[in-house]
Amino acid sequence: MEPLTTAAIALGSVVATKALERTGEMVGETLWKKTDEFLVTLRKRSPNVVEAIEKAPDEPLDYGKAVIEVETAVKADPKVAQAAQEVATAAKAETNPKFVEIMTAPNLAKLADKIGQVVMSGGKGKVQDMRF
User: Fold this and answer.
1) Which domain holds residue 58?
2) Number of domains in the chain
3) Tens digits of per-residue pLDDT, 99-112?
4) Is 132 domain-assigned?
5) Helix, strand or coil for residue 94?
6) Cys-Cys crosslink for 10: which of 59, 87, 112, 124, Cβ 3.0 to 4.6 Å?
7) What's the CA gap between 91 and 5, in Å, rounded?
8) What is the pLDDT of residues 64-95, one digit of tens each?
9) Looking at residue 25, what DSSP letter applies?
């Protein structure tokens, strides 16, 4: 899986897990554990990103910027890459219907592609303005 897609899925999984937790919903033990491990590993490389993720949804999260920063960490640190891949794998295996709905509503692979198109072309844009 491409680092950008892995980063988008990992970030989406963390945010979705947090959102469900606030409503009393629970995700599976594996996803819960892998999400926590990912945040611990990412915090060592990018503490500001983890802080922003943990504040969501109380404070708006710039998903485009966060995905790019997670992708940078994934490319730079094999431990972050492994943790992100494990979260992505656990997310794909998750059976909680609300989690699955959250993760498939905004197609994260398409989100990663759109972010990549903006970044790779040297352009600037706001993810919230892009249509899928």
Assistant:
1) 3-127
2) 1
3) 887 777 655 555 44
4) no
5) coil
6) 87
7) 13
8) 888 889 999 999 999 999 999 999 999 999 99
9) -
